[in-house]
């Protein structure tokens, strides 16, 4: 677990890059830091492995203050994937991936086996790729190697700094899918910096939205788009995503509370509405007509189901029936 306690970072001329940030990143979770350029997300991430020193506050990993940890040892136990991939061009893929295990003193047969396992994990045949050099691989293949190099020393934490942003859209989407699949099996604590909201919503367990060095909201992807904390978060998510999420939520809710009609047993006093009506509109019409429910019809006017007043009002209020 990574914990930020009132962490501030000030650069020259009193420029505050990160301002009094308190944050807990749970073990085994993939957390994205997102926000506009200059919001402090990359600085926040780089303070975890001490690439950028803290001005004030503390960061602890599993309860240990990182300021008391040896810098080199700390970094050897934190995987790091950067946007520019960072593979050493004069080393083979095998040598690149095994770099940290070799620095940590692993036996040759152990790290060679680990390299083969990791290459297999990302769909790169070991016998075909491990003796090649980085420039002999495509951009997407190089980034796959960059990801598994960060995993090679079996670190509990991995930092990823906009790792897919330089790739073409197809390679980027493939690697996002692979990261999600990979995380299910490895269950590492991953801090992932991105400026792409679609990417954050796709890969994250939790999203931290930042602005001007501070945290605006921390939420799951679903909660973030359904309940933006303020106007900035709403605008950064994008009105279209928020509205689409609201429509999808309402459609799921309407579907779950709409009861099938029994043929020949359509309540005579129920008002009739389009099945595309919002739940708020259905509730308004029911109340105005003082009825116990409403009938929803398709575009041809055929009844598709009924929504009963009590269940609808309980759902809108978020209160279980019977309370």
Question: What does this 3D model show about the protein?
Answer:
The protein has 323 residues and is α/β, with parallel strands linked by helices. The chain has two domains: 2-242, P-loop containing nucleotide triphosphate hydrolases (Rossmann fold, 3-Layer(aba) Sandwich); 257-317, CBS-domain (Roll). The protein has 14 helices and 13 strands. It has helices spanning 41-48, 71-76, 93-97, 99-103, 108-121, 126-129, 139-151, 169-186, 197-203, 221-226, 231-237, 239-257, 279-289, 309-317, and strands spanning 2-11, 15-25, 30-34, 56-61, 64-65, 78-82, 157-161, 189-194, 206-211, 214-219, 272-274, 293-297, 303-308. The strands form three sheets. A six-stranded mixed sheet has the order 6-7-8-3-9-10, sandwiched between helices. Strands 2-1-4-5 form a four-stranded antiparallel sheet, covered by helices on one side. The longest helix has 19 residues, at 239-257. The protein is elongated and about 80 Å long. The two termini are 38 Å apart. The mean pLDDT is 85.
């Amino acid at each position: 677990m990574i914990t930020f306690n009132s962490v501030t970072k000030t650069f020259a001329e009193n420029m505050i890059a990160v301002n009094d940030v308190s944050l807990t990143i749970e073990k085994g979770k993939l957390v994205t830091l997102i926000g506009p350029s200059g919001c402090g997300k990359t600085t926040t991430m780089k303070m975890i492995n001490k690439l950028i020193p803290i001005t004030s506050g503390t960061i602890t990993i599993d309860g240990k203050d990182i300021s008391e940890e040896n810098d080199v040892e700390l970094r050897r136990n934190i995987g790091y994937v950067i946007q520019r991939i960072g593979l050493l061009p004069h080393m083979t893929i095998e040598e690149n991936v095994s770099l940290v295990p070799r620095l940590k003193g692993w036996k040759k047969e152990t790290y060679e086996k680990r390299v083969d396992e990791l290459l297999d994990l990302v769909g790169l045949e070991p016998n075909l790729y491990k003796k090649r050099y980085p420039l002999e691989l495509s951009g997407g293949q190089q980034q796959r190697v960059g990801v598994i190099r960060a995993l090679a020393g079996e670190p509990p934490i991995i930092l990823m700094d906009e790792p897919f942003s330089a790739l073409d859209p197809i390679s980027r989407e493939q690697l996002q899918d692979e990261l999600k699949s990979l995380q299910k099996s490895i269950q590492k604590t991953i801090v992932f910096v991105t400026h792409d909201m679609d990417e954050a919503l796709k890969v994250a367990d939790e999203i931290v939205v930042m602005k001007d060095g501070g945290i605006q909201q921390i939420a799951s992807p679903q909660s973030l788009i359904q309940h933006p904390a303020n106007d900035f978060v709403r605008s950064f998510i994008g009105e279209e995503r928020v509205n689409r999420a609201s429509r999808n939520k309402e459609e799921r809710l309407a579907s779950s509370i709409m009861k099938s009609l029994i043929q020949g047993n359509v309540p005579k006093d129920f008002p009739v509405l389009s099945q595309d009506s919002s739940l708020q509109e259905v509730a308004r019409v029911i109340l105005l007509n003082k009825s116990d429910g409403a009938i929803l019809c398709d575009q041809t006017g055929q009844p598709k189901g009924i929504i009963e007043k009590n269940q609808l009002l309980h759902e809108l209020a978020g209160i279980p029936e019977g309370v």
